Amino acid sequence: MSFSPELPYLNLPSLNVLKTFAVVAQTLNLTHAASLLHITQGAVSRQITGLEVTLGYPLFLRQARGLTLTPRGAQLLPPVQQALALMGEALQRVGSHPDTLRIKCPTCSMRWLLPRVIQLQNDRPDMQIELTASIAHGVDFSNEHFDAAVVFGRPPESQRRAHHLFDEVLTPVCTPDFLPRHNGKTAVADLADKTLLHPTRDRRDWLLWLREEGVQGLPSAKSQHFDTLDLAINSALQGYGVAIGDLTLIEDDLQAGRVIAPFPLCVASGASYTLLYPENPTPVLKVAIDFLNEEARLSREKLSALLSTSHRLVSTG
Hints:
The protein is α/β, with parallel strands linked by helices. The protein has helices spanning 15-27, 30-37, 41-55, 71-94, 110-123, 204-212, 229-237, 251-256, 283-309, and strands at 60-63, 66-69, 100-106, 128-134, 148-153, 162-173, 196-198, 223-225, 242-246, 265-276, 312-315.
């Protein structure tokens, strides 16, 4: 009797197509994605259309302001990102390139980190960088095989090799027409009948911002909870509610006008994103460190400009 094992992965889309989907979903802009992937915008569009035909459902909504993920697209993105990261890690273990850098990062930082890593690889084809996203924060270089890590939380005190990237600054975000405006302003009372999108189960980010606004408790009974900030932001981009977002992580979305920060109040939570690495970094790692530090400096400048012109910052840390 012959045995034919089931091989469900034989019918999967190609790796390049899935990578293109992940980049387009992060940027929500075909031109930007094409630049990061180093292919034409037409090639990006054809790959996404072909993937949607293969799957049998749309992944993006094409609108005048640009692309937004459909609910199925938003649901597909995290496992695709995780699968790409796991595949990269497995390939590295089997046959490591001597200049391959392995970087661990929290899932929430992928909105900021992934486009920049792809840009660095396009600028330096000799470099190989593998990102491993994790919902766990922190890293143990003695037991985990990473060359560097981006960690989120209170700034580490005992790490000698640490570079501060940027602080977490929280404020509500939504699509441009989601909330009403009264003489150019939005009030907390306007949230009463809206769905609040929470990046954590304990709702702490929303409650922190509301407390600094002088409001006790949530203004709306409608809410949805997510395991990561990235999922909450993607849902806000689809117009499903108002998320509490980190201004630096969504700087590209703000600049493109896909979302707005309708309230002047911004709250520095006291947490930050920090780049860690072990002793004696290799020359290749030094290049990556210098690049990410410069990108973080530019992001801090953009945040400072935003806060100085249209928002006010309150620090709780």
